[in-house]
């Protein structure tokens, strides 16, 4: 039997081996970290947190990687995360993935992360399709309550979740998010506060796996970027009782440019080993150069002069030390001096242009094809392969390379960025396939490509591309406000790399607005409206986006004002008319809403949204035959849209055409299997058709998709009541009212279940409460009169 051939090393393993073999210096820092594993956690000298800090280029990432290897040698389970993870859920997902790759999966955390991702992915679509407006009281309670319990931090976006107004609208208010049974409320709570829900599970999983390994060591690199989002969470993680008990054999390592914020870490100083890094000493620089075979004194002195002792430059220049008589050579020239192939030199310089690159982008960036270029780039000491994926040049090396290209040939600089922008535009188009155009900014692959297009267009022509970049910001704020930080940072980075003060100032001001006002985009949109040179169409789009945000916060008059201003500057803005119609409808001003929808359809007769909103308005007015006709037209205009089918199904049910209603709901759910609103309404139809088993199955699925909705519990009560299970029905209605006490329909329906149980006094009280909440509730009034006549009350 032949011997099994040895496993071939990967390119990354070879490069990592070479890097480690070339690592020199930092003996004191390595010794400090290693000695900590020999000190028991109970010993006051033991440190649970290491913070390595220093300016770009001093070798923080290289040292952290050496520390990680040292931890592995001591039997540690390790995970490393960099700026690619910009929220707590993303950090937890990265840790879970890396632990799983080492044979130690965090199964409970992975299950909850999968639930969170599914809920986050479908939340916006579900909310757009949710037809019943929540009560103002539930929304106000949600808004105030989420702030009170700390879900909305003072600075930054909602920590990895969604806008509190979104949570309120989708879950029926704060009670729907936090009330009820824990299992039934899981997804609602995850959306409301993912940090609070995920972290205890993470801590418990750490405790479990820590029993099977000597040490657990977590590394967070480039912490200067992620600290605004993670600092408070990490500091709180160490507080007794906040998220659970951490295992004593856990070591946390942070690497960033600045000191830790004393506001969060001041009283935890005894836990932290502060490890400042400076430039290499001359002795350390000479040691590295000697190890690379650079011993000729004039060449050594030239490297020392050019590098200033920055390890990344010493390492890079060691490969290309130059010779005597080249005292005026620039650092960039020395980076590539040892490469005689002009095509490789040109390609290496050009590949500094993208912020991150893969093999396909290298082929685009290079002026001409170079065999083996991608592999060769990874042999260069300044190319970093971060934990999160695509490779990049170290910033200290990339900055002078960009400056050399920008100043050396502005024409070639612009042309190269245009090529890269075109390449990312192709990726953006591919990512757009199958995505709703009104949800593109919420799609992460599309958004990543779109922001890279913006970056390269801005680098090529800062002032010319700025209007498109600001216009993109309006789209981000309208579709995915939580992504606005990525957009603003893109402007900052393009400003730095293109040396454009205009871009830098815009980006910094936008980031400041986001930091000051949290998850709501109102401040950013206000900045655009007051300072940007927008077209009338752009200004109208910004006003519409701000109006929707204000509508979600129940600021009705401000929202109506914004829509009115949008119409004033752009009289043919169909979205402004449609948006104002939705607000007017919510206020019960149906005729005005229909007039606005008339205008929206006149402007854009092929736009399905305006047509389906008309059908929905007719339905809410009780004009069912007209609603049916309009929804037929909306479905014919876009047969792939599930929402008109769902609305039409409910209209047909109310007209007593239950078989046709069931067909509509079946087709809607075939197009959109996670259409929870349609599942609840189909359950109602199945109950009417004598299929309680099917109805309960629909409600179970709806509860799984959107836990905590009062309407789902109310419909479950209807099924129980229809099958004579009156005690269960009363309990279901009770759960619905615990979620939303202003749910008049549940009061009315519970009254009938109570009457069937002989509890007539309670039934009358429920009907009284239903009429108090909704004086126009004619059915409840008729039932109250009937009970009064029967009992003489």
Please characterize this protein's 3D structure.
With 793 residues, this protein is mainly alpha-helical. Helix content is 66%, strand content 4%. α6 packs across α7 and α23 packs antiparallel against α24 (484-498). 47% of the residues are buried. Residues 124-184 and 323-329 have low confidence and may be disordered.
Q: What is the percent of helical residues?
A: 55-70%
Q: Give the amount of beta strand, in percent.
A: under 5%
* Assembly form of the protein: single chain
Low-confidence stretches: 124-184, 323-329
Q: What's the gyration radius in Å? A: 31 Å
Count of runs of 4 or more consecutive helical residues = 41
Strand tally:
7
Distance between the termini: 96 Å
- Main-sheet strand order equals 2-3-4-1-5
Summarize the structure.
With 793 residues, the protein is mainly alpha-helical.
Layout of SSEs?
Layout: H1 11-22, H2 27-36, E1 49-53, H3 60-73, E2 76-81, H4 88-101, H5 107-129, H6 136-148, H7 164-171, H8 174-178, H9 182-192, H10 194-210, E3 215-220, H11 223-237, E4 250-256, H12 262-265, E5 272-276, H13 282-291, H14 297-307, H15 311-318, H16 331-335, H17 342-350, H18 359-365, H19 373-377, E6 383-384, E7 392-393, H20 395-408, H21 410-432, H22 444-460, H23 462-479, H24 484-498, H25 501-517, H26 522-531, H27 536-552, H28 556-569, H29 574-586, H30 590-603, H31 608-621, H32 624-637, H33 642-654, H34 658-671, H35 676-688, H36 692-705, H37 710-722, H38 726-739, H39 744-756, H40 760-773, H41 778-791
Parallel strand pairs: 1-4, 1-5, 2-3, 3-4
Antiparallel strand pairs: 6-7
Helix pairs in contact: 2-3, 4-5, 5-9, 5-10, 6-7, 9-10, 14-15, 20-21, 21-22, 22-23, 22-24, 23-24, 23-26, 23-27, 24-25, 25-26, 26-27, 27-28, 27-29, 28-29, 29-30, 29-31, 30-31, 31-32, 31-33, 32-33, 33-34, 33-35, 34-35, 35-36, 35-37, 36-37, 37-38, 37-39, 38-39, 39-40, 40-41
């Amino acid at each position: 039997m032949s011997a099994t051939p040895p496993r071939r090393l990967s390119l990354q393993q070879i490069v990592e081996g070479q890097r480690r073999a070339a690592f020199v210096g930092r003996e004191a820092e390595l010794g400090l970290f290693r000695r900590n594993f020999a000190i028991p956690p109970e010993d006051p000298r033991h440190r649970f947190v290491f913070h390595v800090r220093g300016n770009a280029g001093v070798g923080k990432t290289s040292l952290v990687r050496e520390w990680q290897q040292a931890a592995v040698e001591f039997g540690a389970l390790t995970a490393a995360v960099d700026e690619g993870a910009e929220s707590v859920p993303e950090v937890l997902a990265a840790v879970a993935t890396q632990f799983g790759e080492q044979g130690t999966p965090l199964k409970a955390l992975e299950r909850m992360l999968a639930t969170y991702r599914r809920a986050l992915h479908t939340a916006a679509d579900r909310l757009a399709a949710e037809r019943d407006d929540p009560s103002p009281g539930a929304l106000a309670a949600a808004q105030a309550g989420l702030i009170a319990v700390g879900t909305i931090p003072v600075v930054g976006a909602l920590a990895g979740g969604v806008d509190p107004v979104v949570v309120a609208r989708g879950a029926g208010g704060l009670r729907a998010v936090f009330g009820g049974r824990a299992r039934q409320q899981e997804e609602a709570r995850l959306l409301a506060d993912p940090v609070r829900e995920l972290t205890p599970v993470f801590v418990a999983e750490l405790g479990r796996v820590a029993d099977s390994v000597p040490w657990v060591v977590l590394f967070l690199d480039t912490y200067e970027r992620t600290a605004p989002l993670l600092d408070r969470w990490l500091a709180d993680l160490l507080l007794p009782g906040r998220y659970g008990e951490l295992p004593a054999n856990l070591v946390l390592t942070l690497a960033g440019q600045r000191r830790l914020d004393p506001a969060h870490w001041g009283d935890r100083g005894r836990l932290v080993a502060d490890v400042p890094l400076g430039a290499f000493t001359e002795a350390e620089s000479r040691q590295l150069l000697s190890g690379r075979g650079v011993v000729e004194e004039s060449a050594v002195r030239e490297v020392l002069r050019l590098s200033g002792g920055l390890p990344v430059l010493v390492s890079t220049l060691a490969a290309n030390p130059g010779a005597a008589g080249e005292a005026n050579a620039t650092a960039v020239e020395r980076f590539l001096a040892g490469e005689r192939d002009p095509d490789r030199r040109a390609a290496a310089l050009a590949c500094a242009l993208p912020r991150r690159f893969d093999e396909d982008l290298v082929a685009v960036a290079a002026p001409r094809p170079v065999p083996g270029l991608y592999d060769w780039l990874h042999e260069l000491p300044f190319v970093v392969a971060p934990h999160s994926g695509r490779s990049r040049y170290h910033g200290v090396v990339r900055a002078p390379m960009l400056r050399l290209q920008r100043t050396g040939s502005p024409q070639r600089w612009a042309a190269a960025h245009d090529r890269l922008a075109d390449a990312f535009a192709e990726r953006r188009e591919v990512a757009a396939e199958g995505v709703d155009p009104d949800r593109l900014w919420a799609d992460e692959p599309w958004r990543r490509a779109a922001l890279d297009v913006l970056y390269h267009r801005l680098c090529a022509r800062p002032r010319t591309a700025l209007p498109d970049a600001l216009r993109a910001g309006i789209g981000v704020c309208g579709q995915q406000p939580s992504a606005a930080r990525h957009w603003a940072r893109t402007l900052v980075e393009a400003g730095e790399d293109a040396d454009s003060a205009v871009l830098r100032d815009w980006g910094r001001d936008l980031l400041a607005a986001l930091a000051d006002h949290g998850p709501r985009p109102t401040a950013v949109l206000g900045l655009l409206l007051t300072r940007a040179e927008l077209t009338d169409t752009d200004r109208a789009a910004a006003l519409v986006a701000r109006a929707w945000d204000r509508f979600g916060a129940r600021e009705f008059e401000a929202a109506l004002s914004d829509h009115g201003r949008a119409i004033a500057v752009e009289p043919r803005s169909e979205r402004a008319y449609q948006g104002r119609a939705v607000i007017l409808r919510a206020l019960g001003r149906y005729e005005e809403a229909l007039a606005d929808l008339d205008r929206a359809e006149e402007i854009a007769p092929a736009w399905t949204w305006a047509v389906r909103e008309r059908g929905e308005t007719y339905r809410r007015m009780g004009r069912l035959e007209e609603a049916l006709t309009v929804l037929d037209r909306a479905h014919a205009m876009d047969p792939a849209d599930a929402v008109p089918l769902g609305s039409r199904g409910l209209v047909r049910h109310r007209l007593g055409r239950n078989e046709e209603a069931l067909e509509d709901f079946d087709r809607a759910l075939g197009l959109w299997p996670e259409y929870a609103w349609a599942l609840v309404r189909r359950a109602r139809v199945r109950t009417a058709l004598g299929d309680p088993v099917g109805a309960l199955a629909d409600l179970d699925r709806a509860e799984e998709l959107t836990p905590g909705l009062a309407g789902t519990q109310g419909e479950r009560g209807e099924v129980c009541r229809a099958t004579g299970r009156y005690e269960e029905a009363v309990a279901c209605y009770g759960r619905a009212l615990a979620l939303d006490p202003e749910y008049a329909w549940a009061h009315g329906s519970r009254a009938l279940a109570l009457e069937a149980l002989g509890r007539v006094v309670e039934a009358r009280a429920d009907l009284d409460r239903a009429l108090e909440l909704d004086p126009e509730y004619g059915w409840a009034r008729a039932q109250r009169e009937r009970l009064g006549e029967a009992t003489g009350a």
